[in-house]
Amino acid sequence: MPSSPAAVETARPIAVVLLSGGLDSCVAAAIAAQEHALALLHVNYRQRTEARELQSFHAIADRLHAAHRLVVELPSVAEVGGSSLVEGGPAVPAASFAVGEVPSTYVPFRNGQLLAIAVGWAEVLAARAIFVGAVEQDSSGYPDCRRPFFDAFEQAADLGTRPETRLRVVTPLIDLGKPQIVQQGLALGAPLELTWSCYQDNELACGVCESCLLRLRGFVGAGVPDPIPYRRRG
């Protein structure tokens, strides 16, 4: 007797995906969906575009038919401060792309905090992998977006979980430029039109923050228009 679609889906290994609602995490989720049942994790940490990012998270989760989804509140990130991305921080600067400088939009050890939550949930779900849409080659230069950091965290997760827990921390975009990420997303049918990348605006993307400019360059380099609305395009 042939297996039902539900039985086939249940048999797929689970992957927890950190899904902010942005371009990179959406493409990472689409990559994970090729071989895994999706457990999509979103964290609200009082970022300036929290409501808009959450909207994108749920829209993407619906489109990708996520088997599991979890939204976690982590207000301590904003309470610690130290970033222009969170409420109460300094203003989000216009993009500068200064070489060797960590921009004010860096949220201190954010990926470490998000991965810790992801590891805990992955262990509960008996997941096999955690996917993160981190980018090192064409990025803002955040120290917690480098492959050695994720390798070290994978080792820490192995040391700090049950003996039978075996988790890979997968960063499928880490060495890609934004045009390649856009192209891969389009090839996979990822819902890029549902994503949101702006650091400071919720209705029309500002078009001048570093995240907006990196995204716009990606679509230009891929030779396709960016499907989200902008107040200013560069």
Report on this model:
- By secondary structure, the chain is α/β, with parallel strands linked by helices.
- The chain has a single domain, classed as Rossmann fold.
- Helices cover 38% and strands 11% of the residues.
- It contains 8 helices and 5 strands, in the order αβαβαβααβαβαα.
- The longest helix is centred in the middle third of the chain and has 16 residues, at 110-125.
- The radius of gyration is 17 Å and the shape is globular.
- Residues 1-9 have low confidence and may be disordered.
Q: Layout of helices and strands, plus pairs?
A:
Blueprint: H1 5-11, E1 14-18, H2 23-32, E2 37-44, H3 50-63, E3 68-73, H4 76-80, H5 110-125, E4 129-131, H6 147-160, E5 168-170, H7 178-188, H8 210-222
Parallel strand pairs: 1-2, 1-4, 2-3, 4-5
Helix pairs in contact: 2-7, 7-8
